[in-house]
Amino acid sequence: MTLRKDFLWGGAVAAHQLEGGWNAGGKGPSVADVMTAGRNGVERRITDGVLPGENYPNHEAIDFYHRYKEDVALFAELGLNCFRTSIAWTRIFPNGDEAEPNEEGLQFYDDLFDECLKHGIEPVITLSHFELPYHLVTEYGGFRNRKLIDFFVHFAEVVMERYKNKVKYWMTFNEINNQANFMRDFAPFTNSGLKFPEGASDEEREVIMYQAAHYELVASAKVVEIGHKINPDFQIGCMIAMCPIYPATCKPEDMMASTVAMQRRYWFADVHVRGHYPSYLTAYFERKGFDLDITKEDKELLSKGKVDYIGFSYYMSFAIKDHGKVPTFDYDEDKDLVKNEFVKASEWGWQIDPLGLRYALNWFNERYEKPLFIVENGFGAVDKVEEDGRIHDPYRVDYLKAHIQAMKEAVEYDGVDLMGYTPWGFIDLVSAGTGEMKKRYGFIYVDKDNEGKGSLDRSKKDSFEWYQKVINSNGEEL
Ligand code: P53
User: Fold this and answer.
1) How remote is the CA of residue 428 from the centroid of ligand 1, in Å?
2) ipTM of the predicted structure?
């Protein structure tokens, strides 16, 4: 088997990481707007609202909000046939709890989608990509509050109705499973707008995370159901951050630790795809005595709102050793992972493992038998403008080539049904994890540094022509 003739070759971004214009056109502040710039190894700080004197890299980002026309023309030159971005919730509902949408925000995405379609580029839209209205954090506590289901569904319904003839491919919550790492502040805040009381124990954090994730899964299921009514042609997927967790050795305890770790990190996909909670998780809730608000109506909604496809990101694989936790093998993402000595890592410590992508595709395919869509993959690296004024980035091409090769093998040898491939940050943008500009993924360079200085001019890296060739040959010429 080879790649589909209608294979979606694209590029992926998220509104908050490239648009800028954080308070333009009536937009309200989102969770991304109160996060400062971090660095490699230094976490971003979450401030109490937008404070003077802080560096908030998402406020201007790469100013796509004002430059999208020229950018989309460049995307067309690159040869993309799809463009994955998100709709910034706070452009449409600045506070998140309004009844009426902000027309100026709606018009922006009409114009952006028209511009894409004019160039034969199909928009692929994430509804919630680390961009929750900040007001929903301060007034409601984020997704720990059931009210957020209705706010999100209302937002989704408004945009799906508005763009029903312009957008066919949707995803509900970006990397909904990052929050499996509830010990840190980053993922619960970016996924769900969760802040924890000072000194909250791991267990307190964990139960809040499960509650928030449940409300999100219910909201997602509702949106799948409503979306299919708005336009039966809609394809609505979930979005999972897939970092497969290998056993560090073939010691049986390591294998079991890996199995449990995979359950704790990927149960979200089970609920999205199968429409119910897996027994390993209900057994866990029972053992821990978690008293979650999961109603009979919620369960019905989950079973009615199964996703059409599985969108996922793939950057790296993990490895785990059992740390003497027989028989529970309870997983602590912050402490239990170990280095994989068989693979190299990026400057940011992300382990480079192309075969892991083939493994991930097989894992999803065996478990769910649904179409799969690789909606993020890429290599964050420091680029240097050489004397000839260009960026020569063979390291980026090497990474992507190896991953595309692995993905093709999953289709050819393993029969995986693959819809498309959209490499992450194909135009340089603000890193989600660190807030840096320096961690670049793009084929298109953007002149801006970590301090926010630079002309914002765009230029092509060597990888630009390489990806052009890949798309033109439908992946034959790598
Ligand atoms: P950055 C962690 C692990 C895997 C993917 O990440 C992740 C994260 C969060 O940092 O995020 C996704 O920018 C996410 C994008 C993000 C991209 O991967 O930290 O969906 O928003 O930019 C790359 O290098």
Assistant:
1) 13
2) 0.97
